[in-house]
Structure formats: C-alpha cells, structure tokens
Design brief:
The chain is mainly α. It folds into two domains: 175 residues, MFS general substrate transporter like domains (Growth Hormone, Chain: A, Up-down Bundle), CATH 1.20.1250; 194 residues, Growth Hormone, Chain: A, CATH 1.20.1250. Helices cover 81% and strands 0% of the residues. The longest helix has 32 residues. The chain is globular, with a radius of gyration of 21 Å. It starts with a helix and ends in a 6-residue tail after the last helix.
Length: 416
C-alpha cells in the first residue's frame, strides 16, 4: 500500500508540474509518440549515411529517392485520414506504425536504386498515414484543449528526436556496416515498440458523418485549403534554423563554426521549455489567428537580425544571431500553437482525419520547397533576401486571421 501511495504521489507531482499528462490514455499516447520520435531522430540523422557509406549508392540517387518518397507519401494523407474517421484513428495509427517498421527494416536488404525507392515510398506512405490518424487521435484524447496537449507532445518530440540524433552520432563515429545496419534495425524496433505502447490507448468513439454530405469535404472546403497553403508557406520557417542559418553562419559571417550547433541547442531548449506556455490562451480560432499574426512579426524581426549578422564582427555577429534565434523561436512557438488550434478548430468533428491529412500536405510540401527557396533567396541574395523571406512570413501571418473569419462565416458546422 505504501508503494502504491508513493507511486500515486509521484504521478500527482509530475502532473502538477506539467511533466506528464493527467490521464492514462494521454500518457500512453505520449509514450508511443516519444518512442516513435526517437526512431525518427535516429533514422533522419543516420539513414543518408547508411545509404551512401554502407550500401554504396551515389549521393545524388539517395537525395532524389528521399525527396521523391517524401512527396509520394503525402498522397496517403487524405484517403487514410478518411479511413481513420470511419474505422478509428487508434487502429489506423497502429497499423501505419507497424507498416513503417517493416518497411524500414527492409532497407537492410537494399542494394540498388529501384529497391531503395520502393522501400522508402512504402515507409513514407506509412508516415503520412500515421500523421493523418494522429490528428483526430490527438484531438479526441486532448479534449477539451487539444492544442495544449499537442504543444506538450511537440516539446516531448523535440527531446525524443534529440535522443535519436545523439544515438545516430555514435553510429556515424563507428562508421561500419554493422553499426549502420544496427541503426536501421534499431529504428524498426522502436517503431514496433511504439505500436505496442499504442495498444494501451483506448479506441476513440467515431462521429457519424452527415448522410447528405460529401465523401471528401476537406477538398471542397476552400477556406481550409487556403489555410493549408498559408500554413505550408509559414512552415518553411522550420528550415531557417536547420538549413539556411548554418550555411549563413559559416559562409557569410565571422561567427565561429561551433556556433552552428549552439544555435540549434538554444532553439531546442526554448521549444522544450516554452511550447506549452505559448499555447496557453490559444483555445479558439480567433486566438489562433492572433497567434499567427504575432508569429509573422517575430519572423520578420528575426530574419532582419540574422541579416545584420552578415556584416558584423565576430563577437557581435554571435550576439545578433543569438537574439535572432531567440526571436525566431518565439515566432515558431506562436506559429505552432496557431497551427495546432486551426487544424482542429476549422475541421468538422466527423472528418478530423481527412482534414488532418490535407493539412499535413501543406507542411510536407514546405519541407520540399523550403531548402531550395531559402538557398536561392537568403543565401543567394544575401541580406536583402533575408528581409524578403521575413516579409513573406509577415504577410502570411496577417492573412491567416482573415482566412479564419472567412471560414467562420461560410462553415456549415460550428467551430470547435
């Protein structure tokens, strides 16, 4: 009895400080997501080197395969989201993670470009399917404030991906066939473990669709399609710190090279500790629109600061970039909170999965478009290019509240 009381007391203490969710279903989903994201961090950080260093494929082929598979995978989002609405998001999520695990494990048998494309496409289709199912699952388990729960998961995911990346660093240092194969198989095992943990999540009650409604309401919802496009453009901000800033620091400033890693560490720490805090109060569509507007302003200020670092002495460049990273991260936190709330709040309850699949397409396309766009504009045009990107984010942030009002005027269902 004393041990049980101690366990309950510890759980209550962790819940009170926001370290773990307050209900068992939320904890199970958070644990499944955490394990899954460790696998993601492990795979993303080491897969390309496995294909080039261990399998021996050319870098160009590997890059093309990864990009093509990611784009093809987006096609699964909407139909699988509809399946999740009709059959249950938990069941679809578990199946998607199992398929993801098996396809990743199959990569150890890859010896040619066609086989690489085949396994990667299946894996990315499973990732897209899991994302579509995760949306309605998060909304149902996170009620009455799914945005706050999603913010908690995002902070947790950053820790998990970092853990995976650290483990991949050990593999890269060893640089042997055995180490790389262990990385791939370890990723697959983590995905399977995620599916096992997800079995502890209760099934979510289904919401009946209107008998006279369209089978594909998400594709006909013009405000939501517009929001998806706008959010996709703003999501390019994710590539600013991981792609454009490191190249800018090394090639265009006098800041030391080690500062590339430090800037990423600052961003990760702020996201982990502040994401839930920045989501407070973002619990309706109007508040989410205001959060997106603030994000746009922050991104413009951040890009201006990063641009200034290009002509500053070394120690001043470091200080300016630090300030730019902090401001950019504030914009990232506001944007994430707005994105979470609007993706749920502007979608009807009976089609959360389908809408989630559509919303993920915009975010997925941003990952494909972001690096080449930032490479041309920020790195090619220099300081003016950073300001152009900042103005783009500012304009998008100002337009989002207008789209929210458009959606609220034209929707047949009540906003969540």
């Amino acid at each position: 009895m004393a041990g049980e009381d101690t366990g309950r007391g510890l759980s209550a203490w962790l819940v009170a400080r926001g370290l773990i969710p307050e209900t068992r279903p939320k904890r199970a989903f958070a644990a499944a997501t955490f394990v899954n994201q460790i696998g993601k961090g492990l795979f993303v950080s080491g897969a390309a080197l496995f294909f080039t260093r261990s399998v021996g494929l050319p870098v160009a082929q590997v890059g093309f395969a990864l990009g093509a598979a990611a784009l093809i995978g987006l096609a699964a989002g909407i139909p699988v989201g509809r399946l999740a609405d009709r059959r249950g998001p938990r069941e679809v999520f578990r199946l998607a993670v199992v398929v993801q695990a098996l396809s990743v494990a199959g990569l150890v048998f890859v010896h040619s470009f066609p086989s690489l494309i085949a396994f990667l496409c299946v894996a990315e289709l499973a990732v897209s399917a899991g994302t579509a199912a995760r949306g309605p699952l998060t909304r149902a388990l996170g009620a009455p404030n799914p945005t706050r729960f999603r913010s908690y998961l995002r902070a947790l995911n950053n820790i998990a991906v970092g853990c995976g990346a650290l483990a991949a660093g050990v593999v890269v240092q060893l640089d042997t066939r055995t180490a790389y194969v262990s990385l791939i198989l370890g990723t697959a095992v983590l995905f399977l473990l995620s599916a096992v943990v997800a079995s502890r999540i209760p099934s979510v009650p289904l919401v009946a669709a209107p008998a006279e409604g369209s089978r594909w309401p998400a594709l006909k919802d013009r405000p939501y399609v517009a929001l998806t496009a706008l959010d996709g453009i703003m999501t390019i901000e994710n590539q600013v710190l991981v792609f454009a800033l490191p190249l800018w620091i090394i090639g265009h400033t006098d800041a030391p090279r080690w500062f590339v890693g430090a800037s990423m560490a600052i961003n990760t720490a702020l996201v982990v500790f502040l994401q839930v805090r920045f989501s407070r109060g973002v619990d309706n569509n109007a508040a989410a629109g205001r959060s997106a507007r603030r994000a746009g302003v922050a991104f413009l200020l951040a890009t201006a600061l990063i641009a200034v670092a290009g002509g500053a002495p070394g120690w001043i460049a470091v200080l300016v970039v630090v300030l730019g990273v902090v401001v950019h991260t504030m914009g990232e936190l506001w944007h994430a909170a707005a994105s979470f709330e609007l993706s749920f709040g502007l979608a009807p309850e009976h089609a959360q999965g389908q809408y989630s699949g559509l919303f993920a397409i915009g975010q997925g396309l941003s990952n494909a478009i972001g690096p080449p766009l930032l490479g041309v504009v920020c790195l090619g045009w220099g300081e003016p290019g950073w300001l152009v990107i900042g103005v783009l984010f500012l304009v998008v942030g100002q337009v989002v509240p207008l789209v929210v009002k458009w959606s609220d005027r034209t929707r047949a269902h009540s906003p969540a």
